[in-house]
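Input record (one chain):
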Amino acid sequence: MNKYKTFREKYPVFIYRSYHITETQDTVNISYEFSIPELAEFNPSWSFPKLENLSVSGDRTFERLVFSLGMAEAVSYWKAVCSPEIHVECGELSPEQIQWWKKLYFNGLGEFFYINGIEADTDDFVNITSAGSFSGEEIKRPELSGCLVPIGGGKDSILTLQTLIDAGRKCMCYSINERCSITETVRTAGLPSGSLITARRNFDRSLIEYNKKGFLNGHTPFSSVVAFSAEITAYLYGKKYIVLSNESSANESTVIGRSVNHQYSKSFEFEKDFHEYEEKYLKTGIYYFSFLRPLSELQIAAMFSVNRKYLLVFRSCNLGSKVSPDVWCGECPKCLFVSLILSPFLSDNALTDIFGRDLLNAESMSGYFTELIGKSDHKPFECVGSVDEVNLAVSLAIQRREASGQKLPLLFENYRKNFYSPENHETEYKQYCRYFNNENLLPESFREILLNEMERLL
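The corresponding structure, as predicted from the sequence alone:
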């Protein structure tokens, strides 16, 4: 019997016991209690800055927000044993909400199921029951205004932030925990002091010890945690818009021929679902959407590369983010992808300056390169662009380097020998520049801002 079935039989129930809210003059502190009976108790926590004169005591809307963040957090601990039952002892969930959470858990754990060889059924993988209630009252808050832009330190959120600033939008930035690249992004953007709101997330690290003992581990839909925590922050600061930076490429499956998407909680499907959940169940009036949803990674790379002041500031390497100050590790598929997608627009020397090594001449990157161009069963399990645009980026970079008489780096030379087609890639690129995915939730005023920014590419 495999681990999945063994753990489900031995630990049939996961319990979301409670959440606790306390306030100081300038923070709201939240703690959660999760339990796997006969195995473990988990107590993750959060601390959110707040406006000095604001209190959330007795605020039912805020309770709903805090409870929902707990539901998003719970999946990380539940997945250790994948109990067939989740008992929610706090908060209210209608049958429709239960189906919403089951969909998020199932699709958000697609990579986890795939990597662990788990054959799970969307209906039967878990049964969620709710026995709690909310105690507060509905409190009218001041009218919402302005934008909250979640910042991760990467090129996408930088492009969103700079474009909105250039358009005259009032923006505050949001991050989970401190990172040097995030602080430097806000500083480089020229925003005034206090423009970055940093929530502190304390993950219960005892889970890592269970992982080391052989309990199940893998990727979870972390962007849903970002969504619900950003919703709390926007509520505390009275922001109307939560402006994400997820692009259309996030919709592509990571595993060829299967619905397994590493980026599910960055997909338009989740964005739409979250937007509807907010309207039906949270009812704050906050509008959640992704500003870059109409665009591809290639368009974003072209638009970002013009903002030269950020080239040595931005970071989006998961391995490198675990050290301080955060760096590009120069050894992972995410580093290679970013190098490839920027390669048509930046010189080899500029790319080497960014990553600290010449990735395009690294033989060790050949395996990841094969996955990124779609010559493998799956793309890397990272937040990377579509296979088609990676191939176009590489082909365009080759064409531009050859046109200027440059020697091709190793990965490009191998690609030219085996996969390159001699057609006019500049024409194909111009078609990409006009790409605009109409499956998006952009309000009309934001749509106009983005279309005006796109004009620079044409």
